[in-house]
Amino acid sequence: MRKQLKKFAQFTALSSLLVLSACGGNQAAGDEEGKSSGGAVKADIGVISYISGPGAAYGEAITNGLKLAQEEINGKGEVEINLVIEDSAGKQDQALTAAQKLMNSENVTGIIGPTLSTEMNVVGPEADLNGVPIMGTSTTAEGIPQIGDYVFRNSLPEALAIPAAIDKAIEKYDAKKVAILYGNDDVFTKSGFDTMKKAAEEKGLEILTTETFQKGQSDYNAQLTKIKGLKPDLILASALYNEGAVIMDQARKMGIDVPFVGGNGFNSPEVINIAGDAANGLIVATPWYGEKEDDKVKEFVSKYEKEYGKKPDQFAAQAYDALYIMAEALTNAGEADRDALRDALAEIKGFNGILGEFSFDEEGDVVMDPTVLVIEGGAFKEFN
Amino acid sequence: MLAELINPYYLQVASFILINIILGVSIYITLSTGQLSLANAGFMGIGAYTSALLTLNFDLPIIVGIFAGTLLAGLFGILIGIPTLRLQGVYLAIVTLGFGEVIRVIFVNWESMTKGAVGLSGIPHMGREILNTLRGFGFDPKILGLQNNQFVFLAIFLILLVATISIITFFRRQNRSRVGRAFAAIKLDEKAAESMGINITYYKVLAFAQGALVAGFAGTLFAHVLAYISPADFAYHRAVEILIFAVFGGSEVIWGPVFGALFLTAMPEVLRFISEYRYMIYGLIIIIMMAVRPQGLIDVNILNWVKLKTSRRGQKHGTSSQKSM
């Protein structure tokens, strides 16, 4: 008993030490913002990212992209950006406390992130109320920039991506009848489905059936048998890649050979790894195409591969561009001031990054042309 | 001076700690009759959705939503408590976990009402509503030397603090009452308790309903502090998280889950400076705890020891003051 008590006392002492060390050192950072002697705009940009937990791969790609961009931007000397990176673990409450820390303890000028749309739904209103410009790099759900004047995003929303993919598919295959399949217990796939349904109705497609599935489901034969009997020209599938790849595999085995159109979550090289040849015929619209014949894109890909040992995905690319957009806005604003940064961000038009030409509309949402890709022979190719 | 000390970040973390403490208390109550219920996440969801929907759709004041959500969760507690009376231990845990999942699936599929997996956004925010109401009376936070957002989070924090303290006080007093003794007797030996004339059905359902009520209350607070809820917030992850508060802190005395909630909520924030490694440390601490103190950190022995220490000190003071007299 005595021994245990001793341990307990040591433990408390240690943990209180940890508390102390965490509390100190935060206060001084915010004061010396603004212009440095060299004339460069110095700014702290906060980052809220999904670094730990099941979705940590997203956060890793995003922070890698940001760090690469930071290095380049600071090297040029016009702007000096200091990134303050905080983890949200994919949870709304954690994202909110991280945002509060960045806004109140670190006094950042602007925030990049958080990773998930659900997190943005919580963090966005708070940042807007505090007058801190915030830009999502991977929040694709409906209604994100509409939260407030200070909320932006540079990630291609589903509302732009899905109709673009459907359009091209209709053109090529002369499709009239479609079947829709979606995961109804996930925010991402559910809002993707809403967009798909709207797009299909607008384009006058006949929706033969709407089938649902759940996260982690492994057998889709019931839904696919029904779809097969109805003989659609296209299957619109709002799924994340892990479920989506299995769906395609089972569909092809069953003899369904029509093309699939997917949302942003379906767009991953993992689909090819999981489904193999069955993945052929998946059409997705994406802001990011790594094989593009463009000097900026090639340079980014080679730099990223050299630094991190793997090819960049769309999350890394969007984060990379996001920091460049922030940097340009900071240059135009001329000072590290939250309101000036917001106004400068809203002014961004025709920004030329690795994702192509990019502008904000009056709500802070994305204006750009997505690239439509198709899987052919086990690789993503541009779809014409 | 005061204004500089009040940082919304710390207040925000403190608010989440307080909500988690209330959740920890909710599982403690059912555990104090020896029932392991994992339905608290479901009750929390019922409370949160009820209050959110009422305030969103009918423009009711938040306080009405909180009452309605809490009561409805309590009602569900009675409804679930009665049929599951015959189950014990693991079986009860499985059934209540199932109940939580059923609730979540209803939230996902009742799209016309709950907007499905996308969740409800724009729920009235407790602190901002208070600020707006007070402004209506001509009050400005600047009178206190506070910024708007400082005032908002201070208000939330104080309300939660009062709520948490009242709940803890209530259940501490209940523990020393007839009801508390009955709970303890049932926990030790149901058959013996019954033969002593304790109405087992009544007390077990009472504990279940109280747990549901408290969890529902925490849910309504959660909805109005975060201003956004989705079915994923009330999945089994939440149920397990609540259970861990009690397992970590200890479930023998009320201070166990309270400390568990406090420590486990503050921990990831304190460890922010090591970013991606913080959840590893978090896991490590829980494993070490399981190995060293499987009954939880705080139990009766620890409390007695603390009491002994403080009372000794008190005695010394006592004697010295007598001398001076």
TrEMBL record, chain A:
It comes from the Bacteria. Keywords: Amino-acid transport, Signal, Transport. InterPro entries: BCAA_transport (IPR051010), Leu-bd (IPR028081), Leu_Ile_Val-bd (IPR000709), Peripla_BP_I (IPR028082). SUPFAM superfamilies: Periplasmic binding protein-like I (SSF53822). GO terms for biological process: amino acid transport. Residues 45-369 form the Leucine-binding protein domain. Residues 1-28 form the signal peptide. Belongs to the leucine-binding protein family. This is Branched-chain amino acid ABC transporter substrate-binding protein. It comes from Sporosarcina globispora.
TrEMBL record, chain B:
Pfam families: BPD_transp_2. GO terms for molecular function: branched-chain amino acid transmembrane transporter activity. Its main location: membrane. Keywords: Cell membrane, Membrane, Transmembrane, Transmembrane helix. The keyword Cell membrane applies. One of its GO terms (cellular component) is plasma membrane. The keyword Oxidoreductase does not apply. It is a multi-pass membrane protein. It comes from the Bacteria. The chain crosses the membrane at residues 12-31, 38-56, 62-82, 89-110, 151-171, 205-230, 242-267, 279-298. It is found in: Cell membrane. This is Amino acid ABC transporter. It comes from Sporosarcina globispora (Bacillus globisporus).
